[in-house]
Amino acid sequence: MKIYISGLYSGTNPQPGIGLARSLRAAYPNVSLTGVEYSSRSSGLHWVDFDELLLQRPWEELDLDTYATIIAQLLDSGAFWLSGIDLEIMWLASVFPEGHPNLLVPPGEAIRRIAKPAVEAHRGLPVRIPSFVSAAEHSEWDLHAFCRRHDWKVWLKGPYYEAVRTNTWDAVESARTAIKRAWSTDNVFIQAHVTGYEESVCFSAYRGELLGSAYMRKREITQEGKTWAGDIAEVPDEFAVPLQRIVKDLNWTGGAELEMVRDTNGQLWLIECNPRFPAWVHGATIAGHNLAAALVERASAVRARKTRVVCEEFARIVLEVPVRPEFPLPPLPEPYAGGFGHSLKHPSGNLVLADRLHKLKVIDSDRACDAKWPPGERTQAPAPAVPPSFISDLNTFDFAKLATPSWLFLESTAASLFRRAAEMSERLSTAAIKVTNAYSIKTNPDERLMRLAYQSGFKAEAISLLEVQRALAVGFKPDEVILNGPGKWWPEGLLPRSPLHAVFCDSIADLKRVASNMENGTLQAKIAGIRLRPPTVPSRFGIPADSPDALRALVEAVDTLPRDCEFGVHFHMASSNVGVAQWWHLYDALLRWCRAIETLSQRRIQHLDLGGGWFPDDWHIDSDARFAEAVERVRTHLPGVTQIISEPGKAMAQPTMALGMRLLEFEQSRGEIKQAVVDASIAELPMNVVQPHRILHQHARSGEWQPLRRGNTQLFGRLCMEHDIVATNVELPVHAQVGDLLVFCDAGAYDRSMSYVFGRG
Amino acid sequence: MYLAEAKGLEVSEQVGHALRAAIEAWQDFPSSELSDHARPCCGIAREWLLAMDASQMPAGERLAGPRWIRQRVTWGPSRWPLYWCEAVAAKTLDCGVLAALAKAAFRGRGVGCHTAQFIQQYTKGDSCHWYKSWERAEAEVHWILEDLVYHEACAVIVGDNEIRIWDPTASWWVDPKQVIGYSGVLAARVLAAQDDLPRHFTWGTHRIPLNQWQPLQYAAELA
């Protein structure tokens, strides 16, 4: 009997070929094992268990039809083919749509039904699928929302290989571009991270018959997340029974691995299902589950030697083996300038194979992310939804007279946001606790917004005395002003003489200064309080309490505050940066810290100032119930609180302004605009790398607004700066012309307030 | 430890003798409890631990082990009695202190938690090093009996009678599936004084009677 085994790579992300050879050799001492490889760099070529080697040229050099014929001849001659390479398996499944008794790979339809992330075939197993969103089918706006919802603990994954942990928007964009470039696909998805212990089920099956399975828990993991040691157990019945049904349903042939994570509550999450044996397959053999032998035995009807249970645990080691003289080592590639030498990535041409299989429509020909879509039907990512008020506000401008780039104040949008916030604070207020909004002046000190805040009953939240003066100029009274931050006393001499609403201290020194100034009458405020620095999120702001000594110092300092002023605690953390769930977790932890401070200082907390950095959708959409619960929790944990000051930050300002700009130049090549230049720049959109902007194009003749979809055009800013790219990967309409107007929405917060003058002479 | 020594860890009557002696020696070994000065120093320590744990706990995951406690300190000798204020300030803590702090953290989250005690098997060579370290620190060494050691952890209630055991020294959940060999758990006990507790807890496939040493798996036959 002759068995061909492919996938011999044995580096830090190993393929299963070596493990398969070891397991089959244990079961069939006299069988002929042929290792199949596509690069002489693969160290598995030199493994002693292979009697013969079939070294092919890398995939980019192979004529696939010829190769398919060769493999068909081998199979027809009685040899078996056991593949350890996902892409090769997909290709073989397409070459042999009816299968072949000696080809030990699953059918194409079965591979499609285990495609990640949905893994359609998982139903019945006691597992859940982590939330995911297809990057190809959702707008940037939606993807950003998904990342926020999952606290930026997300992975960007390609359909076959590659998974990159992306904890910022910038990282999402970079990884997406890299994966697209490498694997010739835009069919990537973002999936929520699940924290827990990694476990796997490996099985082998022949024509729908489950032949054996093994459960593996990773006990040592490499930095790349690969198994380095594990223990093996029987697959429990609640898993094995549905698995048997699924295998039958799929008419599975070959090996497979279900990779899972068990969270702290014991819930299993299915991360992916691989259509081949895992690299640790010989670990299962050591524990008495020789799954590769079971497969060959069933396919060949040649009895395998019984596998002895050596141990239920296995570990990996690094071995040096002699190189086969027939396949001497190739030289190391020349290191790139400034780099250091390393082996080529994918020397066997996997990337090219992916590209070729795309073109042959073998892979990625349907939506792997969403099994409900019929095969072959692909749609473009939708354009982001743009609120109708944006359009109606934009239609009030006479753009013919407008010099660009220009900030556009969306008046009715702004008015409705402030009205809604005021109504929400009314609704959330209870007999015991009044909810008050505060407007963060630094987010956008535009007088129109500040006036709206004032008219809507907001307090003004300032970080400097200059900002205090600006608030007073708009009409706020000193007792409607909240003073925060490390530099709030700057510049000297501008402190109002009458009492402020609240002062929150950013350090122990600040707190002592406030206590002293209130004592001697140079500072008056209804509320004096502290800003707490959460111990688990890096922040330069607030008073730390991350050690018992720090907490003691804080409590002692609180004791110095005059007893005749009310006491408050201030907690600000940008929810758009840390994520929505994480913000709420920090909020709950804050309540626990407040209880500690109350208990230790014997000082009732009467005011909480909460907020900062809310992404508008997270604050304005479907948030009432959550905020109401939050108010209720304050009542339970801190019964002395009479006021919650809610500071939504950019949730108020961001939607209220847009940036108008015009197309200066673009070039078409093969019907596609790859790059275009606009008269705006990152000087007007400094938040460009942090958040997406919804972009509208105005039709030159009809004046109609059209939101831009994702595409292949980069929009370059007017500055002579390499990084002045205001948008990557947008699609300009086919009718776009030089001089057309583009409007970047969602630019009313830090884009506006932190914009700078540059390149204007 | 040499391989020959490790082989000695396997099932043998000798281990059975040692285990019986250890159970007898540690029959009345109490749960490690921190003392309280009843002054602000210990009040701050308690409040700090609970608030810190609320921050450190992953969102919504009350059953996540409080690894952060161990991250702040090294494992080593503690001198008893130990007060709350000393425990949170110390740079080195023994397993009893770590278990007491972790137990407080779990209870602060509203999760039921009791003291779990283990008898674990190491080697005489290991014991010798530990003995010297503890002696040098003038701490008591009654937790070592030849190659067997007493170890303390947290029995965390996860179901009606079901527990998982968090080892705050190692920062891992102890695997109820114990195999013969180095650092193997030979016996376990869950200590608790409340009246409303079940008579036994289930830990994996083990049934651990409350307040009684329970030899585990292979060691059960010997003891």
Any overview of this molecule?
The complex is a heterodimer of chains A (761) and B (223). Chain A is α/β, with parallel strands linked by helices and 761 residues long. Chain A is 30% helix and 24% strand. Chain A is built from 22 helices and 31 strands. Chain B has 223 residues and is α+β, with helices and mostly antiparallel strands. Chain B contains 8 helices and 11 strands. In chain B, strands 3, 4, 5, 6, 7, 8 and 11 form a 7-stranded antiparallel beta sheet that branches. In chain B, strands 1-2 form a two-stranded parallel sheet. In chain B, strand 4 and strand 5 form a beta hairpin. The mean pLDDT of chain B is 92.
Keyword list:
heterodimer; A: 761 residues; alpha/beta; Lyase, Ornithine Decarboxylase, Chain A, domain 1; 8-stranded mixed β-sheet; 8-stranded parallel beta barrel; 22 helices; 24% strand; B: 223 residues; alpha+beta; C8orf32 fold; 7-stranded antiparallel β-sheet; two-stranded parallel sheet; 8 helices; 11 strands; 35% helix
- Secondary structure category of chain B: alpha+beta
Number of helices of chain B: 8
Mean pLDDT of chain B: 92
How would you describe the shape of chain B? globular
- Work out the strand percent of chain B: 15-25%
CATH topology of chain B: C8orf32 fold
Gyration radius of chain B, in Å: 17 Å
Assembly state: heterodimer
Mean pLDDT of chain A: 94
- Give the name of the CATH architecture of the largest domain in chain A: 2-Layer Sandwich
Unreliable segments of chain B (pLDDT under 50, ≥5 consecutive)?
A: none
User: Main interface pair?
Assistant: A-B, 34 and 25 residues
Instruction: Describe the main β-sheet of chain A briefly.
Output: 8 strands, mixed
Q: For the report, how would you describe the main beta sheet of chain B?
A: 7 strands, antiparallel
Order of helices and strands of chain B: HHHHEHEHEHEEEEEEEEH
What is the first-to-last residue Cα distance of chain B? 25 Å
The CATH superfamily of the largest domain in chain A is ATP-grasp fold, B domain
Number of domains of chain A: 4
CATH class of chain B, named Alpha Beta
Q: Count of DSSP E strands of chain A?
A: 31
